[in-house]
Amino acid sequence: xxxxxxxxxxxxxxxxxxxxxxxxxxxxxxxxxxxxxxxxxxxxxxxxxxxxxxxxxxxxxx
Length: 62
Hints:
mainly alpha
């Protein structure tokens, strides 16, 4: 089952945007450091996933 790279990148991008929104809200309400770091790592891993998906698509033609 071949997936479209555009849909994969779109889905992961939406996830990254949600993590960034959660980070901003966590800062606004003064959340614990653990929550703030979770949001940062979630967004960072999402960005890594976007990069990985694009590189994998170039190599294997998903």
